[in-house]
Every structure is written in structure tokens, then in C-alpha cells.
Amino acid sequence: MTRKIVLVTGASSGIGETTARHLAAAGHHVVLGARRTDRLKQTVADLTAAGQSAEYAQLDVTDLTSVQAFVDDALARHGRVDVLINNAGVMPLARLDALRVDDWNQMIDVNLRGVLHGIAAVLPAMSARKDGHIINVASTAAYRVDSPGVVYCATKMAVRAVSEGLRQESKDIRVTVVSPGFTRTELTHRGGDTQTQEAMRALAESVGIDASSIAEAIGYAVAQPDGVDVSEIVVQATAQG
Ligand SMILES: NC(=O)c1ccc[n+]([C@@H]2O[C@H](COP(=O)([O-])OP(=O)(O)OC[C@H]3O[C@@H](n4cnc5c(N)ncnc54)[C@H](OP(=O)(O)O)[C@@H]3O)[C@@H](O)[C@H]2O)c1
């Protein structure tokens, strides 16, 4: 196996943290980014104590300067970024007629702009090397619209659209969309309409799958040979239907 330099956004909890742990255990060097650095520090301490290779940096994906610094630091230290996993996301759910415009803007900023910022930050170096892999975490919400997740669905559909376009433009860079269904994480813990979020949390807890299933799907895409692009993977609970 080739040891890769893998950057993971939103690595302070849930799918991002579990994926970073999974890829580090597989022998890759992982760079964890998020805003909650206390959580990142703990994960990196766990990994290094286990003899694995990891580091972390504070990251806000809504800020292009922050994303560029995250990538540039990794390039300066390691000479390359092999894989960028654009995983950071938020899901403050509410009906459209609740007019939670700040939540709409946050979802656009994190879920869509954040992914575009990641692409902008790594694309020049990957294009110059004619090598690299960008993995965007979308959702089953990228395939169907469900209220009260209309804006969330819109951002995830946009992530699929951007990924498809990037794949068409890129003959050397691999592009993968990984779309989880209900997964037990902290996604419903913040923002949105309280009752809606509680209902969604209960659903995720009852039928949701473990984040390790998503991490393994990402690990599968990473492990393929250079010439093989795993374009889309949807992983959801059997009970989600
Ligand atoms: N859980 C599900 O059922 C499910 C289903 C489909 C898709 N997804 C997608 O999976 C991805 C991971 O979510 P999760 O379920 O693992 O939820 P989570 O546990 O809440 O993790 C979300 C991560 O995103 C980070 N994040 C949020 N805003 C950020 C910002 N401005 N800059 C940098 N990082 C930011 C958070 O870190 P900080 O707060 O520390 O910055 C956290 O590490 C998201 O894209 C989500 O939409 C999840």
C-alpha cells in the first residue's frame, strides 16, 4: 500500500473523525481540520500513541484563507496532498416557511462554499502533479428533496453537481462523492428548529448506521489504483428504505 497524505475537513467528530482514525490505522498520514481544536488534539494524541501518523490544524471551511492555509501547511510539510476529504457539514433543519435565513446561509457557506474552497485550495498543486483525489461527502439528501431539509438537500445536490463537473474536467485527478444515509453522529445536535432536530436525532439514533461504515466506504475509494475512479458511493441503513 502507498502511504498517502490525507486531509480531512470536519474531523472533530462523527464521520470525519472516524474516517481519519480509519485511514491512519490503514497506514496513511492524516491531517485533521475543524474549529474545535481540543477534539482534534485528543484524536491526534490517540493516534500517535497507537504509533500512527497524524497532525491537526484549526480550520474554518467558510473562510478561503483558512482553507488555503490548511492545505499550504500540509504542502510545505509533506510536499504533496494526495487526498482531500471535504467532509465538514451542518444540518440545521426547519421548514422553509420558518424563514431561518441565517441557517440557510450557514448551510450554503459550510456545505457548498466549504467544498468549493477545498477544491480551490488543492486543485493547482494536484493539477501540476497530475495526481490527487478529492472526496466530497454529500448525502442521500443529494438524491431526493425532503422537507424540512430543503436547503440542506439543495446544498448536497450542488455538491454532487460540482463533483460531477470536476470529474469531467479532470483526467488525472480522481473525484469521489460519498453519500451517507442516517448515520449516528453529532449532526443534529446544533441549530435548526428544536422539535425537528429532536425528531431527526431520534430517527438517526434508531435506524442510523455507525460512522465506521462510511469511513470504510471512503477507505475503499482511497485504496483503488490511480487509474480507477470510484465516482459515487451511497451507504445507508437497510431500515432507511
Ligand atoms: N450523520 C448523518 O446522518 C449524515 C448523513 C448524510 C451526510 N452527512 C454528512 O456527513 C458530513 C459529516 O457530518 P457528521 O454526520 O459526521 O456530523 P458531525 O459529527 O456534526 O460533524 C460535522 C463536522 O463538520 C465540522 N464543521 C462544521 N462547520 C465547520 C466549519 N465552518 N469549518 C470546519 N469544520 C466545520 C464540525 O467541526 P467543528 O464544529 O469543530 O468545526 C464537525 O467536525 C457532513 O457533510 C454531513 O452533511 C451526515
UniProtKB/TrEMBL annotation:
Keyword Oxidoreductase applies: yes
SUPFAM superfamilies the record matches: NAD(P)-binding Rossmann-fold domains (SSF51735)
Keywords from the named record: Oxidoreductase
Oxidoreductase found in the keyword field: yes
Segments forming domain Ketoreductase: 4-185
Domain of life assignment: Bacteria
InterPro entries the UniProt entry points to: KR_dom, NAD(P)-bd_dom_sf, Sc_DH/Rdtase_CS, SDR_fam
GO molecular function: oxidoreductase activity, acting on the CH-OH group of donors, NAD or NADP as acceptor
Family: Belongs to the short-chain dehydrogenases/reductases (SDR) family.
Name this polypeptide is given: Oxidoreductase
Taxon lineage: Bacteria, Bacillati, Actinomycetota, Actinomycetes, Micromonosporales
